[in-house]
TrEMBL record:
Belongs to the OMP decarboxylase family. Type 1 subfamily. PANTHER family: OROTIDINE 5'-PHOSPHATE DECARBOXYLASE. This is Orotidine 5'-phosphate decarboxylase. One of its GO terms (molecular function) is orotidine-5'-phosphate decarboxylase activity. Its EC number is 4.1.1.23. Pfam families: OMPdecase (PF00215). The active site is at residues 59, 61, 64. It is an enzyme of class 4 (lyase). Transmembrane segments: none annotated. The lineage of its organism: Bacteria, Bacillati, Bacillota, Bacilli, Bacillales. Keywords: Decarboxylase, Lyase, Pyrimidine biosynthesis.
Length: 239
């Protein structure tokens, strides 16, 4: 499905999204709508993006009791998202309920949105895990375990670092999706991302989809940056 490049629309309003997308008119993108934009604009932002021909990853990271997640997912499937996510920490029953909700909400004749799990947030570190959450296993072990749990619950993949993609594929199978943020061009600033990889490395490491925000959205020439992304993903060197 879709292009492997998910452009994170981390903007506070539809107006700014429209301004950013203007040069891309006629180019169908795969875009990510996160909490900031969705909570401002509501479901109509998804409908708007779909009307423009874009695929939408709705990055709302659901985490609640199973029935609430099921009903919420039913609605998100109706809204037309192509990809959604949950926190694996919600447990097996919650993840199964997410899939049930998506199945129930998908209009007939359409494919159900794919659903991936967040294992551990990249803002989580070993100390927080042990001292704040009282989880005694090493962080990396919990990531692998949560990925297997997501797979066993019927999910389609996980959000992870490209550096974890090989491990995830080894444990969950080649078709289990690795959707990887933390992507930067070689000459970019990392900003607040700790572990960054280039588009080319992400592909070599086994990422199925890369999530890229500021390297495109804050580029002086977003269209040119997007073309560079395609070029480098396909193995090309910088011209
Ligand atoms: O601007 P940048 O390329 O860092 O944006 C990455 C996007 O991916 C942001 O929307 C960020 O919230 C999201 N994300 C992430 N790391 C995760 C999960 C999501 O950077 N583990």
């Amino acid at each position: 499905m879709h292009t492997p490049f998910i452009v994170a629309l981390d903007f506070p309003s539809k107006q700014e999204v429209e301004r950013f997308l203007r040069p891309f008119a006629g180019t169908p993108l795969f875009v990510k709508v996160g909490m900031e934009l969705y909570y401002q604009e509501g479901p109509s932002i998804v409908a708007f993006l779909k009307e423009q021909g874009h695929a939408v990853f709705l990055d709302l990271k659901l985490h609640d009791i199973p029935n609430t997640v099921k009903q919420a997912m039913k609605g998100l499937a109706r809204v037309g998202a192509d990809l959604v996510n949950v926190h694996a920490a919600g447990g097996r029953r919650m993840m199964e309920a997410a899939i049930e909700g998506l199945d129930a909400g998908t209009p007939s004749g359409r494919m159900r949105p794919r659903c991936i799990a967040v294992t551990q947030l990249t803002s989580m570190d070993e100390r927080m895990l042990h001292e704040e959450l009282w989880i005694s296993r090493p962080l990396a072990e919990t990531v692998g375990h949560y990925a297997v749990l997501a797979k066993d619950s019927g999910l389609d993949g996980v959000v992870c670092s490209a550096k974890e993609a090989a491990l995830i594929k080894e444990r969950c199978g080649a078709s289990f999706l690795a959707v990887t943020p933390g992507i930067r061009f070689a000459d970019d600033a990392a900003h607040d991302q700790v572990r960054v990889v280039t588009p080319k490395s992400a592909r070599e490491l086994g990422a199925d989809y890369i999530v890229i925000g500021r390297s495109i959205t804050r580029a002086a020439d977003p269209l040119g940056a997007y073309a560079r992304l395609q070029h480098e993903w396909n193995g090309g060197e910088r011209e």
